[in-house]
UniProtKB/TrEMBL annotation:
Keywords, ordered alphabetically: Signal
Any coiled-coil regions, as ranges: none
Region forming the signal peptide: 1-18
Positions of the UniProt region annotated as Disordered: 75-97, 123-145
UniProt feature, compositional bias: Basic residues: 131-145
Protein name: LTXXQ motif family protein
Organism of origin: Winogradskyella vincentii
Highest taxon of source: Bacteria
Amino acid sequence: MKNLIVIAIAFLTLSATAQDRRQERKGNDHRKEIMKDLTPEEVANLKTKKLTLKLDLTDKQQKKVESILLEQAVDRQNKREEHQNKEEKGKPSKEEFLKMQNARLDSKIEMKQKMKDILTEEQYAKFEKMKPRRHQRRNKRAKRK
């Protein structure tokens, strides 16, 4: 009898913690939905402000960074719309996939070069350190699931 009660308590505790984790994931989904509805200008503005706080950008740097981020946001929105239209076709072929990956990497290289031109050496070093953290967080989340 005692064993059954202990097992029941353990089971209830386990199911309660699993539900808490599901609730946390729903919060991220809500954020993604809000971000989808933002215009490219709003996205670029938000990202510029975040970078300004973290890197202590000057007004001149802010304007340059915002123009780069706006360009990226417009491109991302166009690709998202294009992808939604292509969803009916199915998976991309090997050549299409390779082309998409090369384009993505080329844009990353271009972005990195532009940021290097705009930022000071100290700011650029901070900017480079900021990137790996995002990937570390993603990896930690992926391991928890």
